[in-house]
Amino acid sequence: MQGTELTYPIYSPGSIIGIFNNALKLPATVTLIYLKGRYSYGAGKAYVNYYYDFLYSESDNTSIGIKMPALLRSKIENNEIYTLRGFIEKRIKNSSIELVFVVDDIISQEEKSISENDLKRYDLIQKKLEKGSRDVETLIRNQVLQSEKVKIANIYGHSAIVQKDFNEGLDVSSKEYEIDDYTCNITSATSISDLLDRISPLNYDIIALVRGGGDKQSFEVFNDLVLAEKFVSLSSITVTALGHTVDETLLDKLADRRFHLPHEYGSGLHAIISKLTEEKSNSRALLIEEVKKDVSKQFVEQVTTLTDQLKKKNEEFAEAQKTFKENVEQQTKNFNEQLKVRNDEVEKLKKEITETHGKQVSTLTEQLTKKNQEFQRLQETSEKQVQDINKNFTEQQKQRQQEMETYKKEIAAFHEKNVQSAINEKTAALQANLESSKIENAQLNKELNNSKTDYTKLIAAFIIALVIGFVLAKVL
Protein backbone atom coordinates (compact mmCIF):
# COMPACT_ATOMS: atom_id res chain seq x y z
CA MET A 1 0.00 0.00 0.00
CA GLN A 2 3.00 2.25 0.39
CA GLY A 3 3.50 4.55 -2.54
CA THR A 4 -0.23 4.47 -3.39
CA GLU A 5 -2.10 7.61 -2.40
CA LEU A 6 -5.93 7.78 -2.63
CA THR A 7 -7.29 10.95 -4.27
CA TYR A 8 -10.80 12.37 -3.93
CA PRO A 9 -12.49 14.96 -6.14
CA ILE A 10 -12.92 18.17 -4.19
CA TYR A 11 -15.58 20.73 -5.23
CA SER A 12 -16.46 24.20 -4.13
CA PRO A 13 -20.11 25.13 -3.35
CA GLY A 14 -20.23 27.22 -6.54
CA SER A 15 -18.99 24.35 -8.68
CA ILE A 16 -21.55 21.93 -7.19
CA ILE A 17 -24.41 24.34 -7.99
CA GLY A 18 -22.98 24.81 -11.49
CA ILE A 19 -22.89 21.04 -12.03
CA PHE A 20 -26.57 20.64 -11.06
CA ASN A 21 -27.49 23.71 -13.09
CA ASN A 22 -25.95 22.19 -16.19
CA ALA A 23 -27.55 18.81 -15.45
CA LEU A 24 -31.11 20.21 -15.49
CA LYS A 25 -31.77 19.91 -19.18
CA LEU A 26 -35.49 19.47 -19.86
CA PRO A 27 -37.47 20.06 -23.08
CA ALA A 28 -38.84 23.30 -21.55
CA THR A 29 -35.30 24.66 -21.21
CA VAL A 30 -34.21 24.02 -24.79
CA THR A 31 -37.45 24.61 -26.76
CA LEU A 32 -39.98 27.41 -26.94
CA ILE A 33 -42.97 27.01 -24.59
CA TYR A 34 -46.13 29.02 -23.93
CA LEU A 35 -46.89 30.52 -20.53
CA LYS A 36 -50.17 32.15 -19.43
CA GLY A 37 -50.82 34.25 -16.32
CA ARG A 38 -51.32 37.69 -14.79
CA TYR A 39 -48.47 40.05 -15.68
CA SER A 40 -47.10 42.25 -12.87
CA TYR A 41 -44.44 44.94 -13.19
CA GLY A 42 -41.23 44.50 -11.24
CA ALA A 43 -38.70 47.20 -10.27
CA GLY A 44 -39.72 49.44 -13.16
CA LYS A 45 -36.21 49.89 -14.59
CA ALA A 46 -34.62 48.25 -17.61
CA TYR A 47 -31.25 46.49 -17.39
CA VAL A 48 -29.46 46.02 -20.72
CA ASN A 49 -32.77 46.49 -22.60
CA TYR A 50 -34.61 43.94 -20.46
CA TYR A 51 -37.22 44.38 -17.74
CA TYR A 52 -37.40 41.87 -14.91
CA ASP A 53 -41.07 41.38 -13.97
CA PHE A 54 -43.36 38.59 -12.66
CA LEU A 55 -46.10 36.34 -14.09
CA TYR A 56 -48.65 35.09 -11.55
CA SER A 57 -50.92 32.06 -11.82
CA GLU A 58 -54.57 32.99 -12.33
CA SER A 59 -55.80 30.72 -9.51
CA ASP A 60 -53.24 31.56 -6.80
CA ASN A 61 -50.25 33.77 -5.97
CA THR A 62 -47.56 31.48 -7.38
CA SER A 63 -45.23 33.45 -9.67
CA ILE A 64 -42.20 33.06 -11.92
CA GLY A 65 -39.66 35.70 -12.88
CA ILE A 66 -40.06 37.22 -16.36
CA LYS A 67 -37.25 38.61 -18.53
CA MET A 68 -39.09 40.91 -20.93
CA PRO A 69 -37.45 42.79 -23.87
CA ALA A 70 -37.97 46.55 -23.58
CA LEU A 71 -39.67 46.73 -26.99
CA LEU A 72 -42.30 44.14 -26.00
CA ARG A 73 -42.64 45.60 -22.49
CA SER A 74 -44.14 48.79 -23.96
CA LYS A 75 -47.12 46.70 -25.16
CA ILE A 76 -47.82 45.21 -21.73
CA GLU A 77 -50.43 46.57 -19.30
CA ASN A 78 -49.95 45.86 -15.62
CA ASN A 79 -52.15 43.18 -13.96
CA GLU A 80 -53.60 41.94 -17.29
CA ILE A 81 -53.75 38.29 -18.43
CA TYR A 82 -51.28 37.39 -21.23
CA THR A 83 -50.14 34.31 -23.09
CA LEU A 84 -46.38 34.57 -23.73
CA ARG A 85 -43.98 32.50 -25.81
CA GLY A 86 -40.39 31.96 -24.72
CA PHE A 87 -37.99 29.60 -22.99
CA ILE A 88 -36.78 28.79 -19.47
CA GLU A 89 -33.44 30.21 -18.37
CA LYS A 90 -31.70 28.93 -15.23
CA ARG A 91 -29.77 31.17 -12.85
CA ILE A 92 -27.73 30.64 -9.74
CA LYS A 93 -28.86 32.97 -6.96
CA ASN A 94 -28.07 32.75 -3.23
CA SER A 95 -27.07 29.08 -3.31
CA SER A 96 -30.21 28.15 -5.25
CA ILE A 97 -31.17 27.65 -8.88
CA GLU A 98 -33.76 30.20 -10.02
CA LEU A 99 -35.96 29.73 -13.09
CA VAL A 100 -36.61 32.77 -15.30
CA PHE A 101 -38.91 32.82 -18.33
CA VAL A 102 -37.31 34.75 -21.21
CA VAL A 103 -40.07 36.18 -23.43
CA ASP A 104 -39.72 35.81 -27.18
CA ASP A 105 -43.17 37.11 -28.21
CA ILE A 106 -46.56 38.17 -26.84
CA ILE A 107 -49.13 35.71 -28.20
CA SER A 108 -52.39 37.16 -26.88
CA GLN A 109 -53.97 39.32 -24.23
CA GLU A 110 -57.08 38.00 -22.53
CA GLU A 111 -60.00 40.39 -22.26
CA LYS A 112 -60.23 41.61 -18.70
CA SER A 113 -63.32 40.51 -16.79
CA ILE A 114 -64.58 41.77 -13.49
CA SER A 115 -64.41 39.02 -10.90
CA GLU A 116 -66.23 38.80 -7.60
CA ASN A 117 -63.04 39.94 -5.82
CA ASP A 118 -62.84 42.98 -8.10
CA LEU A 119 -66.40 43.91 -7.14
CA LYS A 120 -65.52 43.53 -3.46
CA ARG A 121 -62.47 45.79 -3.94
CA TYR A 122 -64.71 48.31 -5.67
CA ASP A 123 -67.19 48.16 -2.76
CA LEU A 124 -64.37 48.75 -0.24
CA ILE A 125 -63.07 51.74 -2.22
CA GLN A 126 -66.63 53.08 -2.49
CA LYS A 127 -67.01 52.63 1.27
CA LYS A 128 -63.79 54.58 1.79
CA LEU A 129 -65.05 57.36 -0.51
CA GLU A 130 -68.28 57.61 1.47
CA LYS A 131 -66.40 57.59 4.77
CA GLY A 132 -63.86 60.13 3.52
CA SER A 133 -60.11 60.37 4.14
CA ARG A 134 -58.93 61.95 7.38
CA ASP A 135 -55.97 64.28 7.19
CA VAL A 136 -52.91 63.29 9.24
CA GLU A 137 -51.53 66.81 9.32
CA THR A 138 -54.79 68.32 10.59
CA LEU A 139 -54.96 65.74 13.41
CA ILE A 140 -51.35 66.41 14.46
CA ARG A 141 -51.87 70.19 14.36
CA ASN A 142 -54.97 70.00 16.53
CA GLN A 143 -53.31 67.72 19.09
CA VAL A 144 -50.13 69.79 19.33
CA LEU A 145 -52.01 73.10 19.56
CA GLN A 146 -53.94 71.62 22.49
CA SER A 147 -50.63 70.53 24.09
CA GLU A 148 -51.54 66.87 23.70
CA LYS A 149 -49.24 64.18 22.32
CA VAL A 150 -50.29 62.23 19.23
CA LYS A 151 -50.70 58.50 20.05
CA ILE A 152 -49.29 56.30 17.27
CA ALA A 153 -49.18 52.50 16.90
CA ASN A 154 -46.60 51.25 14.37
CA ILE A 155 -46.92 47.63 13.19
CA TYR A 156 -43.67 45.95 12.02
CA GLY A 157 -42.62 42.42 11.06
CA HIS A 158 -41.08 40.19 13.72
CA SER A 159 -37.54 40.53 12.36
CA ALA A 160 -37.88 44.04 10.91
CA ILE A 161 -35.00 46.52 11.17
CA VAL A 162 -36.78 49.49 9.61
CA GLN A 163 -37.61 51.04 12.99
CA LYS A 164 -34.22 52.72 12.74
CA ASP A 165 -35.12 54.27 9.36
CA PHE A 166 -38.38 55.60 10.78
CA ASN A 167 -36.71 57.07 13.87
CA GLU A 168 -34.02 58.74 11.75
CA GLY A 169 -36.70 60.36 9.65
CA LEU A 170 -38.64 61.46 12.75
CA ASP A 171 -35.53 63.04 14.23
CA VAL A 172 -36.10 65.46 17.14
CA SER A 173 -39.85 65.58 16.62
CA SER A 174 -40.27 62.29 18.55
CA LYS A 175 -40.97 64.26 21.74
CA GLU A 176 -44.28 65.42 20.24
CA TYR A 177 -45.49 61.84 19.72
CA GLU A 178 -46.32 58.88 21.95
CA ILE A 179 -45.28 55.93 19.76
CA ASP A 180 -45.82 52.23 20.55
CA ASP A 181 -44.22 49.52 18.38
CA TYR A 182 -46.01 46.20 17.72
CA THR A 183 -44.72 43.18 15.79
CA CYS A 184 -46.46 40.33 13.97
CA ASN A 185 -46.00 38.07 10.97
CA ILE A 186 -46.21 40.89 8.41
CA THR A 187 -46.70 38.40 5.53
CA SER A 188 -49.81 36.85 7.12
CA ALA A 189 -53.19 38.57 6.75
CA THR A 190 -54.52 36.61 9.75
CA SER A 191 -51.64 37.72 11.99
CA ILE A 192 -52.07 41.38 11.01
CA SER A 193 -55.85 41.16 11.45
CA ASP A 194 -55.52 39.65 14.94
CA LEU A 195 -53.12 42.42 15.96
CA LEU A 196 -55.52 45.10 14.66
CA ASP A 197 -58.30 43.55 16.74
CA ARG A 198 -56.07 43.77 19.79
CA ILE A 199 -54.93 47.39 19.42
CA SER A 200 -58.02 49.02 17.87
CA PRO A 201 -59.79 49.41 21.29
CA LEU A 202 -56.71 51.28 22.68
CA ASN A 203 -57.82 54.57 21.05
CA TYR A 204 -54.68 55.34 19.07
CA ASP A 205 -54.82 58.47 16.92
CA ILE A 206 -52.83 56.81 14.11
CA ILE A 207 -52.30 53.12 13.24
CA ALA A 208 -49.55 52.50 10.67
CA LEU A 209 -48.37 49.41 8.75
CA VAL A 210 -44.59 49.77 8.27
CA ARG A 211 -42.37 47.49 6.17
CA GLY A 212 -39.00 47.87 4.52
CA GLY A 213 -39.81 46.27 1.17
CA GLY A 214 -39.41 42.66 0.06
CA ASP A 215 -40.18 40.39 -2.87
CA LYS A 216 -43.18 41.09 -5.09
CA GLN A 217 -45.14 38.02 -4.06
CA SER A 218 -45.07 38.82 -0.35
CA PHE A 219 -46.96 42.07 -0.97
CA GLU A 220 -50.11 40.16 -1.94
CA VAL A 221 -51.04 40.05 1.75
CA PHE A 222 -51.84 43.77 1.52
CA ASN A 223 -54.47 42.98 -1.14
CA ASP A 224 -56.33 40.54 1.14
CA LEU A 225 -60.04 41.46 1.14
CA VAL A 226 -60.78 40.42 4.74
CA LEU A 227 -57.81 42.39 6.04
CA ALA A 228 -58.77 45.37 3.86
CA GLU A 229 -62.34 45.39 5.20
CA LYS A 230 -61.06 45.45 8.77
CA PHE A 231 -58.46 48.11 7.88
CA VAL A 232 -61.03 50.48 6.37
CA SER A 233 -63.33 50.06 9.39
CA LEU A 234 -60.72 51.29 11.92
CA SER A 235 -61.72 54.41 13.83
CA SER A 236 -58.08 55.61 13.95
CA ILE A 237 -56.34 57.37 11.06
CA THR A 238 -54.63 54.72 8.92
CA VAL A 239 -51.15 55.02 7.36
CA THR A 240 -49.12 52.68 5.12
CA ALA A 241 -45.35 52.79 4.56
CA LEU A 242 -44.66 49.44 2.90
CA GLY A 243 -41.31 50.15 1.24
CA HIS A 244 -42.32 49.93 -2.42
CA THR A 245 -42.87 52.69 -4.96
CA VAL A 246 -44.03 50.96 -8.15
CA ASP A 247 -47.30 49.22 -7.29
CA GLU A 248 -50.13 50.40 -5.12
CA THR A 249 -51.77 47.74 -2.95
CA LEU A 250 -55.40 47.74 -1.85
CA LEU A 251 -54.40 48.84 1.66
CA ASP A 252 -52.49 51.79 0.14
CA LYS A 253 -55.70 52.86 -1.64
CA LEU A 254 -57.76 52.56 1.55
CA ALA A 255 -55.27 54.27 3.87
CA ASP A 256 -55.81 57.88 4.93
CA ARG A 257 -52.14 58.57 4.09
CA ARG A 258 -49.62 56.56 2.10
CA PHE A 259 -45.83 56.84 2.44
CA HIS A 260 -43.52 54.86 0.18
CA LEU A 261 -40.75 54.18 2.69
CA PRO A 262 -40.45 54.03 6.51
CA HIS A 263 -37.91 56.88 6.44
CA GLU A 264 -40.35 58.97 4.38
CA TYR A 265 -43.06 58.19 6.96
CA GLY A 266 -40.86 59.45 9.82
CA SER A 267 -39.77 62.48 7.77
CA GLY A 268 -43.39 63.27 7.01
CA LEU A 269 -44.28 63.38 10.69
CA HIS A 270 -41.16 65.47 11.38
CA ALA A 271 -42.05 67.87 8.54
CA ILE A 272 -45.50 68.45 10.03
CA ILE A 273 -44.04 69.33 13.44
CA SER A 274 -41.34 71.54 11.87
CA LYS A 275 -43.90 73.35 9.80
CA LEU A 276 -46.16 73.86 12.78
CA THR A 277 -43.27 75.14 14.90
CA GLU A 278 -42.36 77.64 12.22
CA GLU A 279 -45.95 78.78 11.90
CA LYS A 280 -46.24 79.34 15.64
CA SER A 281 -43.75 82.19 15.30
CA ASN A 282 -46.01 83.96 12.81
CA SER A 283 -49.29 85.67 13.51
CA ARG A 284 -52.39 83.69 14.38
CA ALA A 285 -54.16 84.87 11.24
CA LEU A 286 -51.31 83.60 9.07
CA LEU A 287 -51.39 80.26 10.90
CA ILE A 288 -55.10 79.84 10.28
CA GLU A 289 -54.69 80.75 6.61
CA GLU A 290 -51.91 78.24 6.15
CA VAL A 291 -53.94 75.50 7.82
CA LYS A 292 -56.87 76.21 5.54
CA LYS A 293 -54.61 76.21 2.49
CA ASP A 294 -52.93 72.89 3.37
CA VAL A 295 -56.18 71.19 4.25
CA SER A 296 -57.84 72.41 1.06
CA LYS A 297 -54.93 71.29 -1.09
CA GLN A 298 -54.81 67.80 0.44
CA PHE A 299 -58.57 67.51 0.27
CA VAL A 300 -58.62 68.47 -3.42
CA GLU A 301 -55.82 66.01 -4.20
CA GLN A 302 -57.54 63.19 -2.35
CA VAL A 303 -60.90 63.98 -3.97
CA THR A 304 -59.25 64.09 -7.41
CA THR A 305 -57.47 60.77 -6.83
CA LEU A 306 -60.57 59.07 -5.49
CA THR A 307 -62.70 60.54 -8.29
CA ASP A 308 -60.31 59.12 -10.89
CA GLN A 309 -60.37 55.73 -9.16
CA LEU A 310 -64.16 55.81 -9.00
CA LYS A 311 -64.37 56.80 -12.69
CA LYS A 312 -62.12 53.90 -13.64
CA LYS A 313 -64.16 51.45 -11.57
CA ASN A 314 -67.39 52.81 -13.07
CA GLU A 315 -66.00 52.20 -16.56
CA GLU A 316 -65.03 48.65 -15.57
CA PHE A 317 -68.47 48.12 -14.05
CA ALA A 318 -70.16 49.45 -17.24
CA GLU A 319 -68.07 47.03 -19.29
CA ALA A 320 -69.09 44.20 -16.98
CA GLN A 321 -72.74 45.19 -17.38
CA LYS A 322 -72.34 45.17 -21.15
CA THR A 323 -70.79 41.68 -21.04
CA PHE A 324 -73.55 40.49 -18.72
CA LYS A 325 -76.22 41.91 -21.08
CA GLU A 326 -74.67 40.11 -24.05
CA ASN A 327 -74.59 36.86 -22.06
CA VAL A 328 -78.25 37.30 -21.09
CA GLU A 329 -79.24 37.96 -24.73
CA GLN A 330 -77.37 34.86 -25.85
CA GLN A 331 -79.00 32.76 -23.13
CA THR A 332 -82.42 34.17 -24.10
CA LYS A 333 -81.80 33.28 -27.74
CA ASN A 334 -80.80 29.72 -26.76
CA PHE A 335 -83.85 29.44 -24.54
CA ASN A 336 -86.18 30.58 -27.35
CA GLU A 337 -84.67 28.01 -29.71
CA GLN A 338 -85.11 25.27 -27.12
CA LEU A 339 -88.67 26.48 -26.47
CA LYS A 340 -89.47 26.28 -30.19
CA VAL A 341 -88.20 22.68 -30.30
CA ARG A 342 -90.28 21.82 -27.22
CA ASN A 343 -93.39 23.46 -28.79
CA ASP A 344 -92.96 21.37 -31.94
CA GLU A 345 -92.71 18.24 -29.80
CA VAL A 346 -95.83 19.27 -27.88
CA GLU A 347 -97.81 19.89 -31.11
CA LYS A 348 -96.78 16.47 -32.40
CA LEU A 349 -97.79 14.87 -29.11
CA LYS A 350 -101.13 16.72 -29.17
CA LYS A 351 -101.81 15.42 -32.68
CA GLU A 352 -101.06 11.84 -31.61
CA ILE A 353 -103.27 12.22 -28.54
CA THR A 354 -106.11 13.69 -30.67
CA GLU A 355 -106.05 10.68 -33.03
CA THR A 356 -105.99 8.22 -30.15
CA HIS A 357 -108.70 10.19 -28.34
CA GLY A 358 -110.95 10.16 -31.49
CA LYS A 359 -110.86 6.39 -31.60
CA GLN A 360 -111.68 6.12 -27.91
CA VAL A 361 -114.59 8.60 -28.30
CA SER A 362 -116.03 6.57 -31.18
CA THR A 363 -115.91 3.38 -29.10
CA LEU A 364 -117.50 5.11 -26.13
CA THR A 365 -120.24 6.60 -28.37
CA GLU A 366 -121.22 3.13 -29.60
CA GLN A 367 -121.30 1.82 -26.04
CA LEU A 368 -123.39 4.84 -24.97
CA THR A 369 -125.92 4.23 -27.82
CA LYS A 370 -126.29 0.62 -26.77
CA LYS A 371 -126.80 1.63 -23.15
CA ASN A 372 -129.43 4.22 -24.19
CA GLN A 373 -131.42 1.55 -26.06
CA GLU A 374 -131.26 -0.73 -23.02
CA PHE A 375 -132.35 2.17 -20.84
CA GLN A 376 -135.38 2.94 -23.12
CA ARG A 377 -136.50 -0.68 -22.94
CA LEU A 378 -136.10 -0.56 -19.17
CA GLN A 379 -138.16 2.65 -19.09
CA GLU A 380 -141.00 1.05 -21.10
CA THR A 381 -141.04 -1.98 -18.79
CA SER A 382 -140.95 0.23 -15.73
CA GLU A 383 -143.74 2.47 -17.08
CA LYS A 384 -145.97 -0.57 -17.62
CA GLN A 385 -145.24 -1.81 -14.11
CA VAL A 386 -146.04 1.65 -12.71
CA GLN A 387 -149.39 1.71 -14.56
CA ASP A 388 -150.32 -1.69 -13.12
CA ILE A 389 -149.28 -0.53 -9.65
CA ASN A 390 -151.34 2.68 -10.04
CA LYS A 391 -154.41 0.68 -11.17
CA ASN A 392 -154.17 -1.69 -8.20
CA PHE A 393 -153.60 1.28 -5.89
CA THR A 394 -156.72 3.07 -7.27
CA GLU A 395 -158.89 0.01 -6.72
CA GLN A 396 -157.50 -0.46 -3.22
CA GLN A 397 -158.03 3.23 -2.50
CA LYS A 398 -161.68 3.02 -3.68
CA GLN A 399 -162.24 0.00 -1.46
CA ARG A 400 -160.66 1.82 1.48
CA GLN A 401 -162.93 4.81 0.76
CA GLN A 402 -166.03 2.65 0.96
CA GLU A 403 -164.81 1.15 4.21
CA MET A 404 -164.16 4.66 5.55
CA GLU A 405 -167.71 5.79 4.66
CA THR A 406 -169.12 2.78 6.52
CA TYR A 407 -166.93 3.58 9.51
CA LYS A 408 -168.00 7.23 9.44
CA LYS A 409 -171.73 6.29 9.48
CA GLU A 410 -171.20 3.90 12.37
CA ILE A 411 -169.17 6.51 14.26
CA ALA A 412 -171.84 9.20 13.60
CA ALA A 413 -174.60 6.97 14.91
CA PHE A 414 -172.62 6.04 17.94
CA HIS A 415 -171.70 9.68 18.55
CA GLU A 416 -175.37 10.75 18.31
CA LYS A 417 -176.36 8.16 20.86
CA ASN A 418 -173.64 9.31 23.23
CA VAL A 419 -174.60 12.98 22.79
CA GLN A 420 -178.31 12.25 23.48
CA SER A 421 -177.40 10.30 26.60
CA ALA A 422 -175.15 13.16 27.79
CA ILE A 423 -177.90 15.72 27.08
CA ASN A 424 -180.41 13.69 29.05
CA GLU A 425 -178.00 13.48 31.96
CA LYS A 426 -177.34 17.23 31.84
CA THR A 427 -181.07 17.97 31.53
CA ALA A 428 -181.89 15.87 34.58
CA ALA A 429 -179.14 17.60 36.53
CA LEU A 430 -180.39 21.04 35.44
CA GLN A 431 -183.97 20.16 36.34
CA ALA A 432 -182.77 19.09 39.78
CA ASN A 433 -180.92 22.38 40.06
CA LEU A 434 -184.06 24.21 38.89
CA GLU A 435 -186.16 22.52 41.52
CA SER A 436 -183.60 23.49 44.12
CA SER A 437 -183.67 27.05 42.75
CA LYS A 438 -187.43 27.13 42.88
CA ILE A 439 -187.42 25.98 46.48
CA GLU A 440 -184.80 28.57 47.32
CA ASN A 441 -186.79 31.17 45.39
CA ALA A 442 -189.90 30.28 47.36
CA GLN A 443 -187.98 30.63 50.57
CA LEU A 444 -186.65 33.96 49.38
CA ASN A 445 -190.17 35.11 48.50
CA LYS A 446 -191.28 34.07 51.87
CA GLU A 447 -188.50 35.95 53.51
CA LEU A 448 -189.25 38.87 51.21
CA ASN A 449 -192.74 38.92 52.36
CA ASN A 450 -191.56 38.75 55.93
CA SER A 451 -189.25 41.65 55.37
CA LYS A 452 -190.47 43.92 52.64
CA THR A 453 -187.90 46.55 53.48
CA ASP A 454 -185.02 44.13 52.74
CA TYR A 455 -184.47 45.22 49.13
CA THR A 456 -180.95 43.85 49.03
CA LYS A 457 -182.09 40.25 49.31
CA LEU A 458 -184.68 40.81 46.67
CA ILE A 459 -182.10 42.15 44.25
CA ALA A 460 -179.78 39.23 45.00
CA ALA A 461 -182.57 36.74 44.42
CA PHE A 462 -183.40 38.43 41.16
CA ILE A 463 -179.76 38.27 40.02
CA ILE A 464 -179.53 34.59 40.96
CA ALA A 465 -182.70 33.86 39.02
CA LEU A 466 -181.28 35.64 35.99
CA VAL A 467 -178.03 33.63 36.24
CA ILE A 468 -179.89 30.33 36.51
CA GLY A 469 -182.05 31.23 33.60
CA PHE A 470 -179.05 32.18 31.52
CA VAL A 471 -177.36 28.87 32.38
CA LEU A 472 -180.44 26.85 31.48
CA ALA A 473 -180.81 28.71 28.24
CA LYS A 474 -177.16 28.04 27.46
CA VAL A 475 -177.49 24.30 28.20
CA LEU A 476 -180.70 23.76 26.31
From TrEMBL:
<dbReference type="GO" id="GO:0006308">
    <property type="term" value="P:DNA catabolic process"/>
</dbReference>
<feature type="transmembrane region" description="Helical">
    <location>
        <begin position="455"/>
        <end position="473"/>
    </location>
</feature>
<feature type="coiled-coil region">
    <location>
        <begin position="303"/>
        <end position="461"/>
    </location>
</feature>
<feature type="domain" description="Exonuclease VII large subunit C-terminal">
    <location>
        <begin position="158"/>
        <end position="418"/>
    </location>
</feature>
<keyword id="KW-1133">Transmembrane helix</keyword>
<keyword id="KW-0812">Transmembrane</keyword>
<keyword id="KW-0175">Coiled coil</keyword>
<dbReference type="InterPro" id="IPR020579">
    <property type="entry name" value="Exonuc_VII_lsu_C"/>
</dbReference>
<keyword id="KW-0269">Exonuclease</keyword>
<protein>
    <submittedName>
        <fullName>Exonuclease VII, large subunit</fullName>
    </submittedName>
</protein>
<keyword id="KW-0472">Membrane</keyword>
<keyword id="KW-0378">Hydrolase</keyword>
<keyword id="KW-0540">Nuclease</keyword>
<dbReference type="GO" id="GO:0008855">
    <property type="term" value="F:exodeoxyribonuclease VII activity"/>
</dbReference>
<dbReference type="Pfam" id="PF02601">
    <property type="entry name" value="Exonuc_VII_L"/>
</dbReference>
<dbReference type="GO" id="GO:0009318">
    <property type="term" value="C:exodeoxyribonuclease VII complex"/>
</dbReference>
<dbReference type="InterPro" id="IPR003753">
    <property type="entry name" value="Exonuc_VII_L"/>
</dbReference>
